[in-house]
Amino acid sequence: MDTKIASPKPASRREKRTATLTVAPVASQARAVSDGEVKTPLRGALMGLSVESHEPIGKQIFRSLREAIFTGLLAPGTPLSEKEVSEMFQVSRQPVREAFIKLVEAGVLQVLPQRGTFVKRISPRKVREGRFIREAIEAAVVRKAAVAITDAQLAELAANLREQKVAAKVNDTAAFLACDEQFHFLIAQSIDCVAAWETIQDIKAQMDRVRYLSLHEVSPLDLLIRQHALIVSGLKAHDPDAAENAMRAHLREILVSLGPVAQLNPDWFEPDEPEAVRLML
Predict the structure, then answer these.
(1) 137 and 259 belong to one structural domain
(2) Which residues form a coiled coil (predicted)?
């Protein structure tokens, strides 16, 4: 899976920060850092890794690359090299290869024969498929939570909502999205079914990439916070129907933002392939 290809065609519209969207990847540029070392997009994405961490290096590489792809630091077309990553951290290629394989399985990397491994463009169809599956799972989870959730667990969700508002107030998109992930995790945790949340991590990969691109103009933070608040309201009332309806409406927001985001960033998306049957529960 290693590649020596230096410059496949990167996304041209996303290499500079724009006023419209918050993500500003730099797929083909490099700059000098203070110690004279050239900081490439790949090197920048992995700067937070440490081989001395108690977490296996393969998991660190997977998580950091995944985050860098989702946030746009590594744009579609960016080449990834097993050799470069392994040499950066003086580890064997095996954990790097394992991380690459997981990212391919998640649909965010692609291997082109005789060329190498590159960040893949977003598939609108995979976004819709992921949303369909995620909605089915999270709707069932939130119905169960509406019956079983405790006051202490509701207090955790309320605290999470306050953190979301703080992040939105200071326009901290990364902090908000971390809170968003935690919010959905807490609901699954409230019914002692964290496996439900873990199951959809790869399924929702393409959704997550669109989420980062959609803030703030297409799906403003305040709108998402209001949707979260409605979910909590249904849970607090122990009303399964209200909680489920609020969750479904929230997860369908991606269908509203997908088209405008794709139009604003055509180089980031694959050609659409409509489903034979419309995926809507």
Answers:
(1) yes
(2) none
List pLDDT tens digits, range 174-186.
899 899 999 999 9
pLDDT tens for each residue of 210-255: 988 887 667 789 999 999 999 999 999 999 999 999 999 999 999 9
Which residue is listed with tokens 């080449």? 79
Smallest CA-to-CA distance from 191 within 126, 118, 137 is with: 137
In the structure, how many helices (H) and strands (E) does the chain have?
12, 5
* Cα 40 to Cα 88, 202, 209, distances in angstroms: 12, 26, 21
Model pTM?
0.78
To the nearest 10°, report the CA torsion of 70, 275, 259, 9. Answer: 50
- The C-alpha atoms of residue 80 and residue 100 are separated, in whole angstroms, by 9
Residues 54 and 74 in one domain: yes
Provide the residue range defining the domain that includes 156: 124-268
Token reading at 64:
């950091």
- Check whether residue 143 and residue 107 sit in a common domain: no
Number of domains the chain is built from: 2
Final residue before a domain boundary, out of 119, 151, 186 = 119
Closest C-alpha to 254, from 129, 121, 106 = 129
* Residue 49: CATH number of its domain: 1.10.10.10
The answer to whether residues 142 and 68 belong to one domain is no
- What's the rounded Cα separation, in Å, for the pair 25 and 7? 15
